[in-house]
What we know:
12 helices; 8 strands
Amino acid sequence: IKKKGKKYGKIAHTIEQAAVLGAGIMGGGIAYQSAYKGVPILMKDIKEEAIAQGLEEAAKHFSKGVERGKMDTAKMAEGMSRIRPTLTYGDFGTVDAVIEAVVENPKVKKSVLAETEEKVSEKTILASNTSSISIDTLAADLKRPENFLGMHFFNPVHKMPLVEVIKGEKSSEEAVATIVDYAHRLGKTPIVVNDCPGFLVNRILFPYFFGFQQLITDGADFAKIDNVMEKFGWPMGPAYLSDVVGMDTSQHVEEVLAEGYPDRMAQDGTSSLDVMVENGRLGQKSGAGYYKYE
Ligand code: NAD
C-alpha cells in the first residue's frame, strides 16, 4: 500500500474530465465521489430511470454534507453541476479517463468497452470497475490494451477507502500511475494488484459468502448469523452485506470465481443466493433481499 498521496510512477496526464459508464449503485457512487472531490464527470447509462436515480443518490450525499455543515447550498449546486448525465457518447471525445461500471458480465463489458474505445481519444484511459473478471480477458479485443486496466471501488463508494488498481499484462505503467493519482485525488487508498479472477479482496470476501450460504442451506437463520458476525466485530453481517452488494452482481461474481478456481469455488446445487435472484429479491436496490427495505 502506497502512502497517501505518494506517486506510483510517471503519470500519462492528470484526470481533469472523467466519465463513468453505468449510473447504478457503483456508477452513481463514483460520479458523486468525483464531483465531490472537484473532478467533473459525465455519467452515461442506457436507461433514463437509472440516471435519475444516480443523480438523486448524489444529491442525497451532497445534502448530508450541507446538513452537517461541511458545505453550503452553493457548494452543493457547484458539486452537482460537475455531474453531467447523458444517454449518448456525444462528449466522450474530450475525457481523460472512462470508468466502466455496467453489469458484471464479460460479454456486455467487452462490447461496451469496444464501443467506448471508438468514441474516446487515443490518450483516454479506460478502467473497469469489475469485481472479478480478469482484466486480460476484458482487454482481449481492445485496440489499445496499454490504456486499459482495472479500477475497483468498493460499495458504498463515498465511505470505502480502498481502491484496487489492477494491472493487466498489457496495461502501461503510465496508465497505472494515472489511475493511482486519480484515486488519491478522490481521497481513496489505492493498491496496485496483479490480474486474476477476483483480484485480492473478492478472493477473500466470496469464500466468506460461500460459507454463509452453506450455513443457510444447512438450515441456519440469516439474521442470527448477522448478529453473531456483528458481535464478532464486523460492521455488518453477511446477509446484510449481500443486500448492499446486490444478489445479481454477487451471482455473476460467483460464476466468474467458479470458472477461475473450479477446485475451490465451484458449488453444487442451488444456493440461497440463486433462490434470491430467482425471486427478484436483489437486495437494497430492489427493495428486498434477505431483509426488506422501504
Ligand atoms: P447496477 O445493477 O446497480 O448498475 C448497473 C448499471 O449499468 C445499470 O444502471 C444499467 O442500466 C447500466 N448499464 C447496463 N448496460 C449499460 C451500457 N451499455 N452503457 C451504460 N450503462 C449500462 O450494478 P452495480 O452494482 O453498480 O455494478 C456495476 C459494476 O460494478 C459491476 O461490474 C460490479 O461487479 C461492480 N462492483 C459492484 C459492487 C457492488 O457492491 N455492487 C462493488 C464493486 C464493484
